[in-house]
Write a structure and sequence with these properties.
Elements: H1 3-10, H2 14-21, H3 25-30, H4 39-49
């Protein structure tokens, strides 16, 4: 999942994403919009924050 896909699915902006992940806005702004989220953040999103966004067969 890319940063842009996550922002769209969650209906949030980069500042909100930073708060959700517990990182700075500067860190989030450095993530390319069209590249996959950093692995640690993707796992956090998938298993802790919003597992409903992911197909259960992938888990």
């Amino acid at each position: 999942m890319t940063k842009q896909e996550a922002l769209t699915l969650l209906r949030i902006n980069q500042a909100q994403m930073a708060r959700i992940f517990g990182v700075s806005r500067a860190a989030v702004s450095q993530w390319p919009s069209d590249a996959p989220l950093p692995p640690k953040r993707l796992m956090q999103l998938k298993y802790e924050l919003h597992p409903e966004l992911f197909d259960q067969e992938e888990v």
